[in-house]
Specification:
With about 280 residues, this protein is an all-alpha fold. Helices cover about 75% and strands about 0% of the residues.
């Protein structure tokens, strides 16, 4: 694990985890280009690299937790009170319930797709197609949103289920998690900032479950002391800082602008990725 590799991976994780461009797709792109030009694997799947991947996700998870700390505390308190009183009329208590429901429907879709997703990692030209599709999702949602005159910030059960399903399909590398969830919310009439806030909060249980607890089972804890901790902690710091800044400024961006610029980006990257790895690599 080289220091430059750690910095690069931290940036990819921190930026693309929250921007609607697909973190998994960019990881496949980076590793595939590295393999093409050096004839070596970017990530070998060793215990240290599995652990490093967990640490990167801890960095972005921490970024979300700190940025939304007040929201999370308030939502948790109201949800606990609602459970005690058996009254979920409070808006924040409902939001917690919607996050749990959305997570359930995410797992319902993502788990069966796990085997397919793992195979696609070795097919970068297919991942390029999915990145291109992400661009189409972003553009169509913005196009349809322009026809909706009155936006709302009110979540409901239907929206929670559909956004959860969208997040499930984003387990396919190249399909952006944040792009799919935000676009689905926008398509359903939610304003962009509300969509992004809900999307980021909805990511918390998924990041914890899919990217931390599950890989931990594959680790040999006796080897951890021999890992390159300088590179690991550098990657963690880079993923945390870039993730925090990404959430902060992406929310400000969405308050004033559409996501069409990210659609154009995905079209260009997806098309080039498909052409290069299909016909030249």
């Amino acid at each position: 694990m080289h220091l430059l590799q750690a910095v690069l991976m931290g940036l990819i994780q921190g930026l693309t985890e929250f921007l609607p461009v697909s973190s998994s797709g960019h990881l496949v792109l980076t590793s595939s280009l590295y393999k093409y030009f050096t004839n070596n694997e970017f990530m070998l799947g060793s215990g240290e690299e599995v652990f490093f991947d967990i640490i990167l996700h801890v960095g972005t998870l921490l970024a979300v937790l700190i940025f939304f700390k007040d929201d999370i505390i308030k939502i948790t308190k109201e949800f606990v009170n609602a459970c005690i009183k058996k009254d979920f009329s409070n808006t924040e208590a409902k939001l917690a319930l919607f996050i749990l429901i959305g997570t359930f429907f995410t797992i319902l879709i993502a788990y069966p797709l796990k085997i397919v997703s793992e195979k696609l990692i070795n097919l970068p030209y297919i991942v390029g197609i999915f990145i291109f599709i992400t661009g189409c999702i972003l553009y169509i949602s913005e196009f349809m949103s322009e026809k909706i005159k009155e936006k709302t910030d009110k979540m409901d059960m239907k929206k929670a289920i559909l956004i959860g399903l969208a997040q499930g399909f984003a387990s396919l590398p190249g399909i952006s998690r944040s792009g799919s969830t935000i676009s689905t919310g926008v398509f359903l009439g939610l304003d962009r900032v509300t969509c992004a806030r809900y999307s980021f909060l909805l990511s918390i249980p998924i990041i914890i479950g899919a990217s931390m607890f599950y890989p931990v089972l594959e680790l040999d804890l006796s080897e951890i002391a021999n890992y390159n901790w300088i590179s690991i902690m550098t990657g963690f710091f880079v993923s945390f800082v870039s993730g925090f800044l990404c959430v902060k400024y992406f929310l400000k961006f969405l308050a004033k602008h559409s996501m069409k610029v990210f659609a154009y980006y995905c079209w260009v990257v997806g098309a080039l990725m498909f052409i290069f790895f299909k016909f030249f690599a």
